[in-house]
Target: Bifunctional protein FolD
Amino acid sequence: MSALILDGKALALSRERQLHMAVDKLLAGGGIKPVLATILVGTDPASATYVQMKVNDCGRVGMGSLRVDMPQSTTTAELLDVIDNLNNDPQVCGILLQHPVPEQINERACFDAIAIKKDVDGVTTQGFGLMAMGEQAFGSATPAGIMTLLKHYDIELSGKHAVVVGRSPILGKPMAAMLLNANATVTICHSRTVDLAEQISRADIVVGAVGQPELIKADWIKDDAVVVDAGYHPGGIGDIEKTGLEDRVAALTPVPGGVGPMTINALISQTLEAAEREA
Model:
């Protein structure tokens, strides 16, 4: 058996063409040009690269972008002022605060200061609560991208046992909530989980979202499982060891080219949706 490769890169490119058409339609109907504001605090090279990728993706689908760069010494109060200005800017449809921020900043306070209608990265506690309850809200971008990928490849979720390894507020927890809303039976594992291998061995769907290179071993995963790796580490390594999986699991995401492109695609898609709501 050869596993189905869940190609996020190809799907993201296909969806970009659809998004461009939707942007053109919005503008033709008198709507405003969707603009994503990105805030980068500090000079972390990886964060700067991620922000530029998001800016580039906006341009490719005909959307606008507003990049706000702030110094490493930025305080919580200064960042909150910038967010407040963006909340009140009618040209800005979505706001992204690049994670992580310098340690002196209260990241949660800044995330929660983002207006719910502009929270296209799904980072506010209000947005999480609404999403978890099945109400209208923008989902965290990576889990939302994963759900789009699974839907595109007709991966059955209802009644399946999903194990999410990781409990971060912008990845593991919202991923679990989205799977639960799709009628999966969900187990969340983390650093305090007893016998992680046993938990994973029972999973129909495994989501690696723990941020540690190859923490999840290939021989823990049962045959015919669906394997989703949301991790990325130097050398193209994910959170899940892949050796031998392609010959026995039902489907898996490559690293890179699986989850990563869908994260940015979800962010862009939700920015367009925010603009459409305003229109």
Summary: The longest strand covers residues 35-41. Strands lie at 4-5, 35-41, 64-70, 94-97, 161-165, 185-189, 205-208, 226-229, 251-252. The chain has a mean pLDDT of 96.
